[in-house]
Write a structure and sequence with these properties.
Chain lengths: 107, 118
């Protein structure tokens, strides 16, 4: 199985901050990397596919980059609704695997 | 706009079989791949597997011996069965649409909580 490791596991930030979350795969996954946002008690919401493609309707302050084994999710200017847990997920090979999550909290 | 809704018993006895159904509305099940994902309380997400509209399946090897997925295109539904459940199978179970060829999961159900207890 491909292991996905996110860092940090938690992050405190303020509204308006620029934040970056990193996701590393245990071996190359090309650009088969997706990002999801999850709020407490809710289903994950799909944000980004193939590492850098923004899902329709997702605000442009979200962006993704990377290929191979190293990827990043960046939020350019945090809004109150962005405080949530973020997961990366590889869809390069089955079993598809998720990172352990990064909890973004209000400072 | 495609929407997914999970249904099934919220309580299952140990050693019995968990059975869930996902109903697809606002679109046809006759394309893409249809997935199950679970999330134990306070933990991360685990991919269980997917089934195509034609019935092709791909299961997580960690659960493969206990998982069966099926699809009913006439009802626009797909289903999950997980046998011999234990407390470790307690989780919120989500169904989701996986878009081929990149298999990203773009539409999710709200999730259903399954408790394993006698």
């Amino acid at each position: 199985d491909i292991q996905m490791t996110q860092s940090p596991s938690s992050l405190s930030a303020s509204v308006g901050d620029r934040v970056t979350i990193t996701c590393r795969a245990s071996r190359s996954i090309s650009s088969y990397l997706n990002w999801y946002q999850q709020k407490p008690g809710k289903a994950p919401k799909f944000l980004i596919y193939t590492a850098s493609s923004l899902q329709s309707g997702v605000p442009s302050r979200f962006s993704g980059s990377g290929s191979g084994t190293d990827f990043t999710l960046t939020i350019s200017s945090l809004q109150p609704e962005d405080f949530a847990t973020y997961y990366c997920q590889q869809s390069y090979s089955t079993p598809y695997t998720f990172g352990q999550g990064t909890k973004l909290e209000i400072k | 706009q495609v929407q997914l809704q999970e249904s099934g018993p919220g309580l299952v006895k140990p050693s019995e079989t968990l059975s869930l159904t996902c109903t697809v509305s606002g679109g046809s099940i006759s394309s893409d791949y249809w997935s199950w994902i679970r999330q134990p309380p306070g933990k991360g997400l685990e991919w269980i597997g997917y089934i195509s509209y034609s019935g092709n399946t791909n299961y997580n090897p960690s659960l493969k011996s206990r998982v069966t997925m099926s699809v009913d295109t006439s009802k626009n539904q797909f289903s999950l069965k997980l046998s011999s459940v234990t407390a470790a199978d307690m989780a919120v179970y989500y169904c989701a649409r996986a878009v081929g060829y990149f298999y990203y999961m773009d539409v999710w159900g709200k999730g259903t909580t399954v408790t394993v207890s006698s």
